[in-house]
Amino acid sequence: MRIDEVMRRHAGHTLLRIVTAVTGPVRAAPDYLILHAEAVIDEAVRHLVAQPGADTVVVTVSVTTTVTVVVEATGPVGILLPPLLGSSARARLLGGHCAVERGARLVWSVPLPPADIHARVPAGPARRRGDRPYAKFSVM
Q1: Buried b vs exposed e over 89-110: b needs ≥16 C-beta within 10 Å?
Q2: CA–CA separation, 109 vs 62, rounded Å?
Q3: Is the pTM of this model over 0.85?
Q4: pLDDT digit string, tens, across residues 63-112
């Protein structure tokens, strides 16, 4: 995933603290789901950067039987994230859901297609090293 690239594009010129975390077997997610997740992150971060008062943006992506993206901002004043129509439409298209919670917290979740889980992440010792669950964290 190119989360760091998206974050730099929108927040690289600001004083925002950026924290990203990716967990789970990302290779289990088909490319089209990853592209949708990146677009959701792009839309949310673009709106959060435009909000005055944010000092930290945290992006978490986890892959299990679903791809879940959580984008949230913290700051000394109330930050409001507007309804993100593009992210909501992407979630509905893929059979998932999208919600803005507590003002500046977006949760976007879509299920992995069952065929991709079994075809791309073999069980047991036959699994490739890159397909193992892992965690990647980044602070900018």
Answers
A1: ebbeebebebebeeebbbbbbb
A2: 9
A3: no
A4: 999 999 999 888 765 666 676 888 989 999 999 999 988 768 899 999 99
Please report the sign of the dihedral spanned by the C-alpha atoms of residue 105, residue 101, residue 40, residue 111: positive
Alpha-carbon gap, residue 106 to 109, rounded angstroms: 10
**Edge-to-edge order in the sheet of strand 105-111:** 97-101, 105-111, 66-74, 56-63, 17-23, 135-139
- Whether the CB-CB separation of 54 and 16 falls below 8 Å is answered with yes
Cα 79 from chain centre: 19
pLDDT tens-place string over residues 5-49: 877 787 777 778 888 899 999 888 899 999 999 999 998 888 888
Alpha-carbon Rg of the chain, whole angstroms? 15
Domains and their CATH numbers in the chain = 3-139 (3.30.565.10)
**SS3 state of residue 130:** helix
Rounded-to-integer distance, Cα 53 and Cα 38, Å: 24
